[in-house]
Design brief:
alpha/beta; four-stranded parallel β-sheet; three-stranded parallel β-sheet; 7 strands; 27% helix
Length: 108
């Protein structure tokens, strides 16, 4: 599986917007000074977040995921759940309505 690595010792802000094209790719983010992370149109494979102790604000929008009606839908829910767990130490976590709807599916 192809992997895209975002690695920077000085990066402070990262905006990532995905499409279904990226569903077959893995993402790794290694940015110890990252303070702001914005992930839109989340995907089946959440990024692997390596050492992000400086996170202040995280925005997660799973809008594209919520609209998908496919057999692997629970994998989307699990992916979003893992992503939220990985960034729970941030000072501020903003999660859109559609993302919350995805998270609700994990409990049912």
């Amino acid at each position: 599986m192809p992997t895209i690595l975002v690695s920077s010792p000085t990066l402070k802000k990262l905006d990532m917007t995905f499409s279904s094209y990226y569903d077959s790719m893995a993402f790794k983010i290694r940015a110890p000074l990252l303070e702001y992370l914005n992930i839109s149109n989340c995907f089946k494979r959440q990024p692997i977040l390596n050492s992000l102790p400086s996170l202040l604000e995280v925005y997660i929008d799973a809008n594209g995921v919520y609209a998908a009606k496919e057999a692997g839908e629970i994998s989307y829910s699990n992916s979003i759940t893992k992503l939220v767990q990985d960034v729970q130490h941030a000072n501020s976590l903003i999660v859109t309505y559609n993302t919350i709807k995805i998270l609700e599916r994990v409990n049912y």
